[in-house]
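Deliverable D4.2, example record:
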Amino acid sequence: MNHSAYTRTFKNRISQRGLSLVELMISITIGLLILSTLVMLFVNQSKTRTELDKSNRLIDNGRYALEVLSEDLRLAGFYGERNLVAAGVINDPCTTTPTDPSVTEMRDALGLHVAGYDASGLGVAIVSPPCGLTTTPLATANLKNGSDILVLRRADTTAIPAASVSGTHHYIQLSNCKYDLATSVISKTASDFNLRKHPCNSTSTLPAANVRRFFVQTYFVSPNNIAGDGIPTLKLKELDPTGTGVFVITPLVEGIEFLQVDYGIDGDNNADGVMDDINGDSFINIADTDGVADSYVTTCATAVCWSNIVSVKLWIIARNIETTVGYTNTNTYTLGLAGTFGPFNDSYKRHVYTQTVRLVNPSSRRETP
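Output generated by the structure prediction step:
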């Protein structure tokens, strides 16, 4: 090999000993641009995922609230084998007096399978709310203005022998025997249940009528889940859920901001909440009791009216629990006969859910063959 040629070749090459300052700055700038792009992409994806999670929770909460209310409404007015109960009187649904002729008692309102307390619009307070519900801030039973109260009464679908009454829950027994002096008993004591069912006679104590657990459920919207947290919540004040003999409040669904209820009357001619016959008297129109709602009202004036409710329209506004940065809610929402709610002009996203529920027990008994 020619040594001199080999030497000349390497001497003519330019040695690379590192990057210049300009090259280093350019490479750093390019790296920062790539990094910032990746960070922006990550942040945008994170925001999108967060908003998607909020939307999913909003949808789930609204649907679940409708499902809970609808399932209980379909059972309203069920008292067992004998379902025909007189209208009775309107009383506080949270009374715990089972049977006492001297005072307002539970069984006085058995014919009111549903009842309601109307908040006629956004920000409107219910006059004289039942069950100790109040608009006092931070109270456990705090009631949100603009939301209705819905009351349901029914019996358990499972019957038990009178001897199995626990003494910790309220139970109901209805008579289907013409020889019984009483038509119903509500009690926690086994010895009180001595009503009979068909076939019976004037002397025998048998056959004994079935005994079922008695439910009174009052649904309402509170401005807080836990006192002061500002999360509107659908709550339930229910008789005996834990066998204590008293009414207990249970939070059900967070993010439910407003509840409005329209009631479908069977036999009402003019949608005034008062049952009218064809001559305009304050009675039901017997010729039109077919189990189908003839009109919808926001409340009833009499116990007779409540006893003729055969369907319910539920209207719910579900709200995100957290705000959305950069968003202003200028939408309006229509909640049935209560009218328009909004705009709220805040940073919470909302959605309206509605469902019509047929009250199977009272309506099916009126169906025309």
